[in-house]
């Protein structure tokens, strides 16, 4: 997630400035990212602006999306690139072997209050009676919510080619300090959305929710496939918008529910 004046980015990673932002602005953050890597990120269809690295060496792009070196080395599939409006989009890979219970754990290194925020996020999904449901467990989870460090609020990835959800969400609790439970729940639900295959609703123009210069995230090799039935008009309240305002609550709106029920 990231923020701009009056907005926070709800991307795979995030940090708080005036609003939430997946990462802070600044040339120094790109200082450790080579020109070759930035070029590969761009060719994959992602923005190569304000790219950072996490503690494991992954690249954090567009505020909260994690890319490994292996993904950077993959050849972009230009056949699938498309530019759209503010509709809902998914990746090529989705969670399979449905119906399915996805277990989620949360690290004790995160504030105790995050347990209730996670329960709220999971309840939002479970209330939709999807073919996937979420259950909080103490260990051995399919998705682990862990404490992260860096210039982001939270970060995650996309489902694997074998049909499993991305297995980890990193949360920068220092950046989220002071935010109400509903905001933390919205951030967690957003990152879990990435884990099961959702792209940003405004992937084609992150300025829509974040402000600033328009950036088209691109479909890249992970895909940005339009979800039929979602509203083609601007959607200012989607839980998968790139940015979210400080203190804001983003439960699923009507468009989000259509997208969730179409996929799962």
Can you walk through the features of this model?
It is a single chain. Strand 3 (14-16) and strand 4 (20-22) form a beta hairpin. By secondary structure, the chain is α/β, with parallel strands linked by helices. It starts with a strand and ends with a helix. It has a single domain (3-263), classed as Collagenase (Catalytic Domain) (3-Layer(aba) Sandwich), CATH 3.40.390.10. Mean pLDDT is 76; it is low at 2-31, 77-87 and 213-219. The strands form five sheets. The chain has a five-stranded mixed β-sheet with strand order 10-9-11-13-12, with helices on one face. The protein has a three-stranded antiparallel β-sheet with strand order 5-6-7. The protein has six helices and 14 strands.
């Amino acid at each position: 997630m990231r923020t701009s004046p009056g907005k926070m980015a709800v991307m795979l990673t995030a940090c708080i400035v005036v609003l939430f932002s997946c990462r802070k602005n600044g040339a120094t953050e790109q200082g450790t990212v080579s020109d070759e890597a930035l070029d590969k990120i761009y060719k994959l269809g992602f923005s190569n602006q304000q790219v950072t690295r996490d503690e494991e060496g992954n690249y954090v792009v567009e505020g909260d999306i994690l890319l490994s070196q292996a993904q950077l080395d993959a050849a972009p599939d230009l056949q699938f690139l498309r530019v759209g409006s503010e509709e809902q989009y998914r990746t090529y890979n989705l969670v399979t072997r449905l119906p399915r219970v996805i277990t989620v754990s949360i690290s004790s290194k995160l504030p105790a209050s995050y347990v209730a925020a996670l329960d709220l996020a999971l309840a939002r999904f479970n209330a939709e009676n999807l073919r996937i449901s979420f259950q909080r467990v103490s260990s051995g989870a399919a998705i682990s919510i862990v404490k992260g460090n860096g210039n982001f609020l939270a970060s995650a990835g996309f489902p694997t080619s074998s049909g499993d959800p991305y297995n980890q969400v990193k949360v920068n609790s220092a950046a989220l300090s002071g935010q109400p439970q509903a905001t933390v729940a919205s951030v967690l639900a957003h990152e879990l959305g990435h884990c099961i295959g959702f792209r940003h609703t405004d992937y084609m123009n992150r300025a829509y929710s974040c402000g600033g210069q328009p950036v088209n995230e691109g479909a890249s090799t992970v895909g940005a496939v339009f979800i039929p039935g979602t509203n083609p008009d601007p959607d200012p309240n989607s839980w998968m918008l790139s940015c979210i305002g400080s203190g804001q609550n983003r439960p699923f709106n009507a468009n989000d529910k259509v997208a969730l029920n179409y996929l799962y």
